[in-house]
């Protein structure tokens, strides 16, 4: 554990999955000394995956407990990122309990689901839901957290988790890829707007990560086919991405803003060649 983020307060959205990126980011920032607030969208135990329920995982309360076990302060908030009132309430609660907000990591995203179909077969409401969560939710969190950062007058860091799919944009990914590509434009605009306040805004676009989101692809034939497209021949880990988030929020990255950092094992580079 180091102290490069000591005295900072971070908010990570979508951080309840036991094998998810949000939890890994929260723990990485806590190990760097930050106090950490995490969010989830449901108190309902049925929202947990089958393996989480089997392990007795409780979601948000367990992530909060893990953060506190690292010797820093933690706070957990349930909210729907699509609702401005929820986001405003979350910001107020974090400031009340932890004193300020210096870091925002937009990680909340719609799960892999029935959207992976040709556009002609995509449900209209599902399209709206994916864009509302992935893009509008990111916008609302940036809007209200950046207001708090500006008022504090000490700068800050915003990191949004996108996807290599935003650049590769493969078939049947129309809603997901469009929502993540929109995030790139949003963060570029914010970097221009917020730079005068010492606030950086960046995107990390991971590729194929070893999380619960890819459990449906673990059949040996599908798995090998998927890995064959990645030059490094393995999925990325949440810890690798979390470490880049930590770096972007730290003192050595204050001149990095408006950038999209790819972490795809070389896959998107190959697709664009």
Describe this protein's structure:
The chain has a 7-stranded parallel β-sheet with strand order 3-2-1-4-5-6-7, sandwiched between helices. α5 links the parallel β4 and β5. It has one domain: 3-Layer(aba) Sandwich (Rossmann fold). The model has no long low-confidence stretch (mean pLDDT about 90). The protein is globular and about 50 Å long. The longest helix is centred in the middle third of the chain and has 29 residues. It contains 10 helices and 7 strands. It has about 270 residues and is of the alpha/beta class.
List keywords for this structure.
273 residues, 14% strand, seven-stranded parallel beta sheet, globular, alpha/beta, Rossmann fold
CATH superfamily: NAD(P)-binding Rossmann-like Domain
Largest pleated sheet: 7 strands, parallel
Spans with pLDDT under 50 lasting ≥5 residues?
A: none
Oligomer: single chain
Radius of gyration computed on alpha carbons:
18 Å
Q: Encode the helix/strand succession as letters.
A: EHEHHEHEHEHHEHHEH
Distance between the termini: 40 Å
Stated plainly, the CATH topology is called Rossmann fold
Number of extended strands: 7
Specify the CATH class.
Answer: Alpha Beta
What CATH architecture would you give?
3-Layer(aba) Sandwich
Shape: globular
In total, the number of domains comes to: 1
- Strand percentage lies at 5-15%
Mean pLDDT: 91
Strand order of the largest sheet: 3-2-1-4-5-6-7
Please identify the structural class as seen in this structure.
alpha/beta
Number of helices: 10
Please estimate the helix content: 40-55%
